[in-house]
Design a protein that fits this description.
The complex is a heterodimer of chains A (499) and B (187). Chain A has 499 residues and is α+β, with helices and mostly antiparallel strands. Helices cover 61% and strands 10% of the residues of chain A. Among the domains of chain A are: 186 residues, no CATH class; 122 residues, no CATH class. Chain A has an eight-stranded antiparallel β-sheet with strand order 4-3-2-1-6-7-8-9, with helices on one face. Chain B is mostly helical and 187 residues long. Chain B contains six helices and one strand. In chain B, helix 2 crosses helix 3, helix 4 packs antiparallel against helix 5 and helix 4 runs parallel beside helix 6. The longest helix of chain B is centred in the middle third of the chain and has 29 residues. Chain B is flat, with a radius of gyration of 24 Å.
């Protein structure tokens, strides 16, 4: 046998083996990756959804030092009244979220409160920690605390591993980069969709899986690094990266004034726009103030400025112009959430996020179609996958409706809806029929959500609610179109899973 | 800024057109088209960098080209008539064995994690960089190396070899991280 033939056979065997590994890993992690990616796609728009959820909150487009100082004074007074003065945070208005909000939190008693302030810095109404917050935390940790965050991190590692094995196991993936054949064999169609969405979304897939895995595993890795490099002193490890922290000096001290701290920050970076202000151990000699500010020309979402108890600038994070390490750290979050280019980038991340959900789904439907092609169909798994895939938009919509319309807690509603849809897979409907009905249900629920939201908030002042309602209606319409097309023309394909 | 962003959009579409041309041609011209596509892709990144600064411009340009890629693929869509199912070549199927599956899970999961954390710790402690960079790069390497270990372990037919390499990687990582400290007497 010639050397070329031997090499070709070895290469082909390696590719087959890699494809088998890619397939096994994908099947094992598909559901988890789908849950993370779908919630992540929704979470990209958490600012818009926050405005949509509470469209009656005061709109504040700008807050000068006086307004910030007044808001700070008011929230400190509220915290004192509640005997919960430990840390306070002010979130300042931005183009994406024109709201001024303030909150306090006391670790010992667990007391906390979140308020909206008006353009003069007066606290007007409490924030509702409702559906948007649920959705954001769902993406971070499935509400499972540290273990939930690690699980999401592991999903990121699995996704990154699938990206690597996917590229290696498809030698023609770049050569076939423009081929999209729909109709005919379902396996071929799904493979084309899977590979084309993967190859053109590759930079995005690498960025979100690596940054997601990093953010998810950061706590665990910090713990290990602290043990290895700092003899178990996690505070020292955090200090090395995040800078000085508040100390345990409980002697009373005046809270530093806002204006001089902002002036010191602007001396450093004249174009920076403050995004939030946080004071830890408020009113004590150990207090520390952090001001985070955004420079639109930097990828880092914010630079951090730390001030001592007297309000003197003592540390600049270096997220924008510091070491390679700090700039890398600062790039993780904006790259992960698409918060570096305003609404156009968010919309692009929305499209790419839907694409990665489809890549995950088609990965499973390729496997199911292959089983069917080989005469070994798995109709129960086809139904289960259709239920898992469409269960996500249904569960998010039902939880939003239940929370907004009836004030029900979103976590049990979300999981109950997910399980209820999954239970439908036990009915012996053909997978395509189940998928059709679940899509119909999704579209109807979206319309119901929009109508109920619109009726409830018709007099509210934030125009974002109409944009979000319009986008949800558009999504319902798009699903409706696919249903109409299928109803009219049937399908030319063998039925497998997500139709 | 606005017109440079507009130029960025135009250039990203032109870059994709170059790649599309290279894909369609079978003759020597494909390499020229490919080179043109790459040059236009670089020009796209330049235009976006001019429009929004290098740090924001490069990810903007890449995102733009990703979306342009989807548009070109959509434009190239081919609808095929129904075709009877047939048995096709499939990837290598391993006969599922429970014990082997458990071993692979342990290799790709916990052992891969241990090995990758070993590499991360080694870089975080010993790489010739400033402290912050060492720590962040070390931490970033953990998911990257773990993902690589996972991909490789699942595709390698020889489980023992995977186990040996991963164990060796872990031992080497921790040795590089900790041995210098042992010699200095700080552990």
């Amino acid at each position: 046998m010639s050397r070329i033939t031997q090499n070709q056979e070895a290469g082909s065997s390696f590719v087959r083996s890699m494809l088998a590994g890619h397939s096994a890993l994908g099947i094992a992690f598909a559901a988890l990756i789908l849950l993370v990616c779908f919630s992540g796609t929704v979470a990209v728009f958490h600012e818009e959804l926050l405005r949509w959820e509470e469209p009656d909150a005061p709109l504040v487009t700008n807050a000068d030092d006086l307004v910030i100082q007044r808001t700070l004074d008011h929230i400190v007074a509220k915290a004192r009244e509640d005997q919960a003065l430990h840390e306070v945070t002010l979130r300042l208005p931005r183009a994406e979220l024109p709201r001024l909000s303030a909150e306090y939190h006391d670790h010992d008693s667990g007391k906390e409160a979140h308020w909206y302030a008006d353009a003069d810095g007066n606290l007007t109404r409490m924030q509702v920690e409702g559906w948007t917050e649920f959705m954001r935390r769902h993406h971070y940790s499935f509400h499972g605390g540290s273990w939930g965050i690690y699980l999401v991190g592991i999903a990121g590692v699995a996704l990154l591993s699938l990206v690597m094995s996917g590229i290696i196991s498809h030698p023609r993936i770049f050569r076939d980069a423009f081929a999209l054949r729909l109709g005919g064999s379902r396996r071929l169609q799904e493979a084309d969709i899977h590979n084309r969405l993967s190859v053109w979304g590759l930079p995005f897939h690498i960025a979100i899986s690596l940054s997601g895995a990093f953010l998810g595993l950061a706590g665990l890795v910090t713990l290990v690094l602290a043990y290895a490099a700092y003899n178990g002193d996690t505070e020292k490890a955090i200090l090395a990266v995040l800078g000085p922290q508040a100390t345990e000096d409980a002697r009373p001290a005046p809270i530093p004034a806002v204006a001089p701290m902002l002036a010191q920050m602007w001396e450093n970076t004249p174009d920076a726009r403050p995004v939030f202000l946080h004071i830890d151990h408020v009113g004590t000699a150990g207090q520390m103030t952090v001001i985070a500010a955004h420079d639109p020309h930097q990828l880092a979402y914010t630079e951090r400025y730390r001030f001592d108890a007297a309000g003197k600038l003592i540390w600049v994070g270096g997220y924008e112009k510091g070491t390679v390490g700090m700039q890398t750290l600062a790039a993780m979050q904006p790259l992960h959430f698409g918060s570096f280019g305003g609404m156009p980038v968010k919309l692009a991340y929305g499209v790419l996020g839907i694409a990665i959900c489809l890549v995950t789904s088609t990965g499973i439907t390729i496997w199911l179609a292959r089983r069917r092609d080989r005469g070994n169909p798995a109709p129960h798994w086809e139904r289960v996958w259709a239920a898992i895939f469409w269960g996500q938009p249904i569960a998010f919509t039902v939880s939003a409706f239940a929370t907004l319309a009836a004030g029900w807690p979103p976590i049990p509603v979300f999981w109950a809806s997910t399980l209820a849809v999954l239970a439908l897979a036990a009915l012996r409907w053909e997978a395509a029929l189940l998928s059709f009905r679940l899509r119909l249900l999704t579209a109807l629920l979206l319309v119901l959500l929009v109508v109920s939201h619109g009726l409830r908030w018709q007099g509210a002042g934030d125009p974002m609610m109409w944009w979000v309602d319009g986008a949800l209606l558009l999504a319902a319409g798009a699903i409706g179109l696919t249903l109409a097309r299928q109803w009219k023309g049937g399908t030319m394909l063998a039925q497998t899973g997500r139709a | 800024m606005t017109w440079m962003a507009g130029l960025g959009f135009v250039l990203s579409a032109a870059a994709l057109a170059g790649f599309r041309l290279a894909w369609a041609r079978q003759d020597q011209g494909r390499w020229a088209a490919l080179a043109l596509g790459i040059a236009l892709a670089l020009a796209t990144l330049w235009a976006w960098s001019m429009a929004a600064g290098t740090e924001v411009g490069i990810p903007l340009g890449i995102t733009c080209m990703c979306l342009a890629g989807y548009l070109f693929v959509g434009a190239n869509m081919e609808i095929r008539p129904a075709r009877a199912r047939r048995v096709t070549a499939t990837p290598e199927e391993r006969k599922p064995k429970f014990g082997r599956g458990v071993v692979r899970f342990i290799l790709a999961g916990p052992l891969g994690a241990v090995a990758s954390i070993g590499i991360g710790v080694a870089v975080a402690m010993q790489a010739p960089m400033v402290e912050q960079t060492r720590l962040v790069i070390g931490a970033t390497l953990v998911p990257l190396v773990w993902a690589g270990c996972m991909a490789w372990t699942l595709c390698d037919g020889r489980v023992i070899r995977s186990a040996m390499v991963l164990s060796g990687t872990a031992i080497a990582g921790y040795a590089v991280a900790l041995l210098p400290l042992l010699f200095k007497g700080t552990v």
